[in-house]
Structure formats: structure tokens, C-alpha cells
């Protein structure tokens, strides 16, 4: 099985660092829980470009970005029994080196690092399973009978409805069981 694992918000808790950058720039007191939509730029009155600039700037200080869960490397390693794990991300070209350094520092196992221009481009890679937090990606996965989605719960994807071939998880500990279920 080919498994695509997203980076931001699924492995790396980059939105905490994003909040810090945005708060410094905007004079706000945003917290992760306040980001109830991925398109937070609309809610904050900033441009989409500014939103992603803050995200890239968060990667400038990659050493301060925590993993989304404790013992994450071990939890990701447990998936390797089910198939090949690739990191599939929409990170900017400028932040790829920092992202790879973060993965190495946290000992996150993977076979390939795949950078795509945007979340929509992930679907064309035809992975068997996508572990992601992007709310818009899950309906696309659901439409393809050969694909499965594992939606990693985040404040910005709470409104994603139940979809065919899509499971929602709150923790990485739930994923190995789901992969076994998918393989059957």
C-alpha cells in the first residue's frame, strides 16, 4: 500500500508557530483552537499570500516547531508494516530544506519527500491512502473508489461531514487499525 502523509498539521504542529508569527504581526492573540477554517486569512482580514508567508516564516525557525503528538516517530514507524510512507506536502520550495531537517530531527521515517504546488495536486499522485488534515481533499478522495482518506482532526476540519472511504482520527494511535481494515 502507498501511503501519503501530510506534514503541516499532521506531523508538524506548524499552526502554533503560525499563530505566534501572526500575533506578532497583527497584534492579535490567536490560538490554534481559533483557526476554525483553513481559509483563516479571510477571517483575519489578511491576504492568502500573507497567510502562507507567515507559514513559511514559521519554518525559518523549524527547531521550535513541535510534533503534533508525543512519540510521533514511533507511531509513524508502526505504519510501515502496512506499506510505503511518503511525505506529500504543499510546502514552498524555500521551506523544503527546513521541513526535511525537521523530519530528520524528529526521526520521522519516510521513503520519499514529495512536494506539490497545492493540496489539490495530491489527488493526482494516486496514493492508496492519504493521511491529511485538508478538509477540501477528503471529498476528492471519497469520489475515487481506489483511494482512502484518514482525516487527522484539527480545528479547521471539524465541519467535514462523514464521507465514503474517509475515516476521521484524533490520534496517530488509531491509524494502524484503520490501515489493517483498509487492506482487508
Task: Give a written overview of the molecule.
This protein has helices spanning 14-26, 40-44, 48-60, 72-77, 96-105, 137-142, 175-183; strands spanning 2-5, 84-89, 112-115, 129-132, 148-152, 166-169. It is of the alpha/beta class. It folds into two domains: 2-13 and 66-183, Rossmann fold, CATH 3.40.50.1000; 14-64, no CATH class. Helix 6 links the parallel strand 4 and strand 5. The radius of gyration is 16 Å and the shape is globular. The mean pLDDT is 93.
What's the layout of helices and strands?
Blueprint: E1 2-5, H1 14-26, H2 40-44, H3 48-60, H4 72-77, E2 84-89, H5 96-105, E3 112-115, E4 129-132, H6 137-142, E5 148-152, E6 166-169, H7 175-183
Parallel strand pairs: 1-2, 1-4, 2-3, 4-5, 5-6
Helix pairs in contact: 1-3
Q: Within the largest sheet, what's the order of strands?
A: 3-2-1-4-5-6
Average pLDDT figure? 93
Global geometry:
globular
Strand content: 5-15%
The quaternary state of the protein chains shown equals single chain
CATH uppermost class of the largest domain: Alpha Beta
Which spans have pLDDT < 50 for at least 5 consecutive residues?
none
Q: Major β-sheet, in short? A: 6 strands, parallel
What's the structural domain tally? 2
- Report the C-alpha radius of gyration, rounded: 16 Å
